[in-house]
Structures are given as structure tokens and as C-alpha cells.
């Protein structure tokens, strides 16, 4: 295994020299952008920095999430780097290793970790409530050793380029925790349709609405066991929110760097920006947010590595990292002035990306409500509350 600090330096160098100069071209999202992204991914593989946190038996170079955070923050410095460096596939790689059948691993996992396939996760639906899985209507019926899937999904990331999707579907009629399952579906299966691309804040970034019409796949394309959908969703969220958060932290740090660069630039000196109290206040606000998010990330990641309950920590991390990125982008634009709104700086794109983080992987309002309920449960008079391990305090009786 590689020293995380050394790998982080390599990733930082690659992102700054190979990806950042091409961000305008990558943002176009056209065929030329896809070809460029593929070419850069091949270079990343040749450099040995691709898929750093994949499972070790499938080419990963780092075993513990706490060690990977150093690398992941550097991956996150560009909106496009996680895709190019294979980081976007990390969560699916771990889920397929843990729960995929031999058929799934052979057909989907192997090309995924080799950079030859793109994955997507199809959960959200047009007519369901994202925070209430029981409202999902996409169904999968098992007949003659095949799953037949019917339904619609939308705002599915990477769906326009994906080779397969992990689909959350109802496999039982009862409104219980065992009603949902996850099934891996190749996107070239008959009946799989991209209904329309969906822009997010005016940008097309690979999200689409999908339709499944009698899509059939083998029975062993099921992940885990039938009825494990909720449990697998919780596993995805536990790791996925931390992976997202650390990449957002990388973007926030880049905004902070751009803010400080402008303050110290000739124009910044001419305007005496460093002498202005409001500028100093923004610098402190941004740095404080990043530092807080970083501390929460390492705490939640350590508990993840050690197998300690960390649902409160994970959700707080997601909330704080999202806010840190939003504040960093907003303050950097404010200090940059009109240039911060222009396409020749990355800030306008980062600003829009920052707003989406308050919805992606769980809307802020839903997470705040959940964490509030958990904290009130953990601090009830008959509970023994440990503020250093709040998730463990949920349901823990007083000795």
C-alpha cells in the first residue's frame, strides 16, 4: 500500500496540471468532453492514482477511509476530478464486492474497477418521497429465475453514460422494511430507456429520467438478499455521504485558495483588501467552516473504519461540509467581484454545484429532522448520553 500523504501529493499535482487547465472543455459535456475525460482517466491509471480507495483485492491502494480522506480532498479540488480519477465508482465498487454474486462481480465489478464501465444508482422517483422509501413504486417481480422490472426513476447521476444501474425496487407488497431490494441492471437491456436528460441549475451533467418497461435480468443480479434494500441503502449512505463530503471539502478549500489569491494579488493590494474587516471576516468564516467539516469528517471516518455506529456523525458531516462549500463559493465570488461570475473562473460552476449539495444524498431539512430526533432520543432522561459517541447513545440505557 502507498503512503496516503505521498499519494495525496501525486493526486494534487495531477489535478492541478492535467485537469484544472481543461475544466472549461470538460464543462461542455459534449462528445469532445467525454473523449477528453476518458483520455485523462487513462493517464491517471498510468500514473497509478486511479481508484485509490477501491477494495484492495480490486486494485485499491488505501485500506482505511481515514487515510483516504487525505487523498480524496485533493481529488475534490475539481468538479471533474472524481469522475476522471475513478472516485465516483468507489461506492459502487465496495457495494458490489460486499453484496454482489459471482455473476455480478464478473460482468459489472471487474470492468468498473478497470475504468471500462460507468455505474449509476437509481433510487429517486418522480412520484415518490425521497426520504420515505415506502412510497417508491418501481417494482421487480421474480418469474422463472428472472427479475422483471417496471417503473421510472429520475435525477440519476451518470445515467447518460452508465453501463449499468443499481435499481431500488419493490419486491414485496407489504409496507415493511423488507419490501425493497436492489438489483443490478445493464443499461443495454431491452426496455431500459433514457426518457430525457435533466438539467440541474441550468447545467446538463449526466442526470436523466429513466424508464424500465419489463426489463428482465437474471435472478443473481440481485444485490444481497431479497428484502435487504433498506439495509443496503443505509450502508450506501454511511459511506457515500462521507465520500461526497470530502470531495466537497476539496472544492471548498480551492475556493478559499482563490479567495486568498485575490486578496494578495496586485489588484487586491491596490484595493487594500487585506486591511478591510469584512474581508478578514469572510476569510475566517470560510476557514472555520472548512476546519469544522474536516474535523467532523475524520471523526465519522474513524468510527466507520472501526465499525462503530456513526449515523449522527455522518449526517452532521454532510450538513457541515455542504454549508462550508456554499459559504466558501459565495465568499470567494464576493471578493472576486464580477470576475467570480464569469465562465473563465471555476467559481460560477462551483457555486451552482454547492447549492445542489443541500439536496443530494439527503435534503438538509430531512437530515436536520432526523438528527434532531436522534439527539432527543439519545438525551432522554433514561439514556446514558455520550457526546463523543452520540450515535452509540441512541437506545443505550442508563447503567
From TrEMBL:
GO molecular function: acyl-CoA dehydrogenase activity; flavin adenine dinucleotide binding
Cellular component, GO annotation: cytoplasm
Domain Acyl-CoA dehydrogenase/oxidase C-terminal span(s) in chain numbering: 227-376
Keywords: FAD, Flavoprotein, Oxidoreductase
Domain Acyl-CoA dehydrogenase/oxidase N-terminal: 7-115
Occurrences of domain Acyl-CoA oxidase/dehydrogenase middle (ranges): 121-215
Any Pfam family hit: Acyl-CoA_dh_N
UniProt xrefs under InterPro entries: Acyl-CoA_dehydrogenase (IPR050741), Acyl-CoA_Oxase/DH_mid-dom (IPR006091), Acyl-CoA_Oxase/DH_mid-dom_sf (IPR046373), AcylCo_DH-like_C (IPR036250), AcylCo_DH/oxidase_C (IPR009075), AcylCoA_DH/ox_N (IPR013786), AcylCoA_DH/ox_N_sf (IPR037069), AcylCoA_DH/oxidase_NM_dom_sf (IPR009100)
Named cofactor requirement(s): FAD
Position of the signal peptide: none
GO biological process: fatty acid beta-oxidation using acyl-CoA dehydrogenase
Record-stated family: Belongs to the acyl-CoA dehydrogenase family.
Protein name: Acyl-CoA dehydrogenase
Record organism: Ventosimonas gracilis
Taxonomic lineage of the native organism: Bacteria, Pseudomonadati, Pseudomonadota, Gammaproteobacteria, Pseudomonadales
Amino acid at each position: 500500500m502507498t503512503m496516503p500523504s505521498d499519494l495525496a501529493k501525486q493526486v494534487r499535482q495531477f489535478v492541478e496540471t492535467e485537469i484544472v487547465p481543461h475544466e472549461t472543455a470538460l464543462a461542455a459535456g459534449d462528445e469532445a468532453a467525454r473523449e477528453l475525460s476518458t483520455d485523462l482517466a487513462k493517464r491517471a491509471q498510468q500514473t497509478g492514482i486511479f481508484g485509490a480507495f477501491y477494495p484492495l483485492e480490486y486494485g485499491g491502494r488505501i485500506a482505511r477511509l481515514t487515510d483516504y480522506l487525505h487523498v480524496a480532498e485533493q481529488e475534490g479540488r475539481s468538479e471533474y476530478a472524481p469522475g476522471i480519477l475513478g472516485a465516483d465508482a468507489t461506492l459502487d465498487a465496495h457495494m458490489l464486492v460486499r453484496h454482489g454474486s459471482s455473476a455480478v462481480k464478473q460482468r459489472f465489478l471487474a470492468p468498473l474497477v478497470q475504468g471500462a464501465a460507468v455505474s449509476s444508482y437509481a433510487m429517486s422517483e418522480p412520484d415518490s418521497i425521497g426520504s420515505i422509501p415506502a412510497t417508491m413504486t418501481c417494482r421487480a417481480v421474480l418469474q422463472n429465475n428472472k427479475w422483471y422490472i417496471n417503473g421510472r426513476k429520475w435525477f440519476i447521476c451518470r445515467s447518460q453514460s452508465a453501463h449499468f444501474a443499481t435499481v431500488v425496487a419493490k419486491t414485496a407488497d407489504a409496507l415493511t422494511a423488507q419490501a425493497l431490494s436492489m438489483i443490478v441492471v445493464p443499461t443495454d437491456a431491452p426496455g431500459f430507456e433514457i426518457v430525457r436528460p435533466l438539467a440541474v441549475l441550468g447545467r446538463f451533467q449526466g442526470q436523466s429520467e429513466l424508464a424500465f418497461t419489463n426489463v428482465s435480468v437474471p435472478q443473481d443480479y440481485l444485490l444481497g438478499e431479497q428484502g435487504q434494500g433498506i439495509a443496503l441503502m443505509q450502508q450506501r449512505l454511511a459511506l457515500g455521504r462521507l465520500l461526497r463530503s470530502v470531495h466537497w471539502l476539496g472544492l471548498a478549500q480551492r475556493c478559499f485558495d482563490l479567495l486568498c489569491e485575490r486578496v494578495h494579488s496586485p489588484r487586491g493590494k491596490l484595493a487594500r483588501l487585506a486591511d478591510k474587516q469584512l474581508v478578514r471576516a469572510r476569510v475566517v468564516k470560510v476557514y472555520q467552516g472548512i476546519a469544522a467539516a474536516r474535523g467532523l469528517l475524520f471523526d465519522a471516518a474513524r468510527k466507520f473504519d472501526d465499525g462503530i455506529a456513526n449515523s449522527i456523525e455522518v449526517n452532521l458531516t454532510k450538513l457541515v461540509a455542504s454549508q462550508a462549500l456554499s459559504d466558501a463559493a459565495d465568499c470567494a465570488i464576493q471578493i472576486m467581484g464580477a470576475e467570480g461570475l464569469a465562465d473563465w473562473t471555476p467559481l460560477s460552476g462551483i457555486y451552482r454545484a454547492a447549492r445542489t449539495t443541500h439536496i443530494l444524498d439527503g435534503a438538509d431539512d430531512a437530515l436536520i429532522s432526523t438528527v434532531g430526533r436522534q439527539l432527543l432520543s439519545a438525551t432522554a432522561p433514561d439514556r446514558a448520553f455520550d457526546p463523543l459517541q452520540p450515535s452509540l447513545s441512541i437506545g443505550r440505557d442508563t447503567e
